[in-house]
Structure to design on (288 residues):
DNA sequence: TATAATCCCGAGTGAATGACTCGGATATGA
DNA sequence: TCATATCCGAGTCATTCACTCGGGATTATA
């Protein structure tokens, strides 16, 4: 029942983009340094984030990444779904699941997993990057 | 963000014990048959459940397993913690975690993970076996 | 117009985990 | 005594995780 580092890194990286939001895009390498994440691994993560249209990449020298939407319109759920797939404790309660398993109608545990999924979504889908950035005590993001 | 099959099997197995609760203990092999789970794998799961004092094993012929407490005093959280460890989306927000990570005080994402953890616990720790068994429409547990 | 900086992309890798299996030892009711 | 159980440690095989490697395409800037 653990989040992968991919998910954690993605949220942290998105928060860097949020807090350093300016005219100029910020380079992946810079994000990696600030958050102490392997740049090459972070690259893969940004591929997912870009495909999910959460960030836009600017190529060429002095390029980088920017949020694709305002920070109050991107939730933690958006980010996690982009890099980790559907938020569901078990496969049979995925929102977009094509077919239910054949014991769905008699499955007692299914209701539990649905309620668990919903309680997770409730937190993740209502917490935006702006919310999170707002809780910061204006510390630097650098290592402490 | 997926539960392992171990956790799912554990809950299903405990529900079998709940619903077939009688004088006699029920054999592991029977539970495995009813729920279509590998008996040898289920054995490992019952080791965890027994160590967590959620079930008691009765050895010898016509032995088996029983709930160690009434079904309304065992929660889904008890079961999952027994077989999967602490319920926490990331390590740094485990309830029994010995030391916080060194960036805990400046870590923005930590609060999100704590809220996520709490929302998960809220569901899992308030749902008992009795609750779940109560929702059943008196169908047989056999495959359908 | 070089050139360095940057994003973009597919593939590979080594360790860890997940989901089991195997082979037994121990206890006990019939 | 013997079949039926729980108990227990170890082994296996596939998958996933958390990266690394080696390039190609694009673009500001010197």
């Amino acid at each position: 029942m653990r989040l992968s580092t991919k998910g954690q890194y993605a949220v942290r990286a998105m928060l860097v983009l949020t807090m350093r939001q300016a005219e100029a895009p910020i380079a992946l390498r810079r994000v990696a340094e600030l958050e102490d994440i392997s740049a090459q691994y972070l690259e893969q993560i940004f591929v997912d984030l870009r495909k999910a249209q959460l960030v836009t990449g600017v190529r060429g020298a002095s390029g980088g990444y920017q949020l694709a939407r305002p920070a109050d319109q991107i939730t933690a759920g958006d980010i996690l779904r982009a890099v980790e797939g559907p938020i569901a404790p078990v496969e049979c309660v995925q929102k977009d699941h094509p077919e239910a398993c054949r014991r769905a109608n008699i499955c007692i545990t299914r209701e539990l997993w649905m309620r668990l999924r919903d309680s997770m979504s409730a937190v993740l889908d209502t917490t935006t990057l702006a919310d999170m950035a707002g809780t910061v005590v204006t510390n630097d993001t650098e290592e402490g």
